[in-house]
Amino acid sequence: MSTAEAAAPTRRAGLPLRIGLVLGGLLAIGDIVTSIPQLADDPVVPVVYIVISVVALALTPFAWGGGAAWARFTIIVTRVLSALGAVPAFLYPGVPAGWVVAAAVGIVLELLAVVLLLARPRSA
Predict the structure, then answer these.
(1) Residue whose C-alpha is closest to residue 76's, from 122, 117, 120
(2) Which of 13, 40, 80, 89 registers the highest number of CB atoms within 10 A of its CB?
(3) How far apart are CA 91 and CA 88, in angstroms?
(4) How far apart are CA 20 and CA 22, in angstroms?
(5) By CB neighbour count within 10 A (0-12 exposed, 13-18 middle, 19+ buried), where does 48 fall?
(6) Which residues pair with 11 in a beta bridge?
(7) Nearest alpha-carbon partner for 56 in 30, 80, 74, 68
(8) Beta bridge pairs of residue 122
C-alpha cells in the first residue's frame, strides 16, 4: 500500500444517505409507474419523467457506497426536477383537491430525499 492510499480515508455512506437513496429510488419507481399510463395522451412529459427516473435508478448503486459525489448530485437534480413537475397542480384552477394534496406530499417527500442525499459520507 502506498503512502497516498494509506493517507486517503475510506468514505462510506451513512444511514441518512442510504435512506435518501432508498426514498429517491422509490419515488423514481413511482414516477415511472404513474407516467406509463399517460404516454397515450401526451408522450413528451411522461417520457421526460421516465428518463430522469431511470437515470436516478441507474446511478443509485454508484452513490450507495458514498464515494461517487457526481452520482449523488445527479440523483439530487433528478429529484428536484421531479418535484418541480408537481408545481402546476397549485397554479392551475380546477385541479381536484386530492391531486393537490398528492402533489404536496410528493414535493415534501422529494425534498426530504434531497436533504438526506446531501448528507456527507462518513469516514471509515
Answers:
(1) 117
(2) 13
(3) 5
(4) 5
(5) middle
(6) 123
(7) 74
(8) 12
User: In the numeric block, which cell numbers belong to residue 76?
Assistant: 439530487
CA atoms within 13 A on the CB side of 57: 14
Which grid cell is 38? 399517460
Q: Identify the CA nearest to 74 among candidates 54, 93, 103.
A: 54
Q: What is the DSSP letter of 12?
A: E
What Rg value do the Cα atoms of the chain yield, rounded? 17
Q: Which helix (H) or strand (E) holds 10?
A: none
**What span, in angstroms and rounded, lies between the C-alpha atoms of 124 and 112?**
25
Per-residue model confidence as pLDDT tens for the chain (124 residues): 555 555 555 556 688 899 999 999 999 999 999 999 888 888 888 899 999 999 999 999 999 876 688 999 999 999 999 999 999 999 999 989 999 999 999 999 999 999 999 977 666 5
SS3 111: helix
pTM for the predicted model, two decimal places:
0.82
- End-to-end CA, the chain: 17
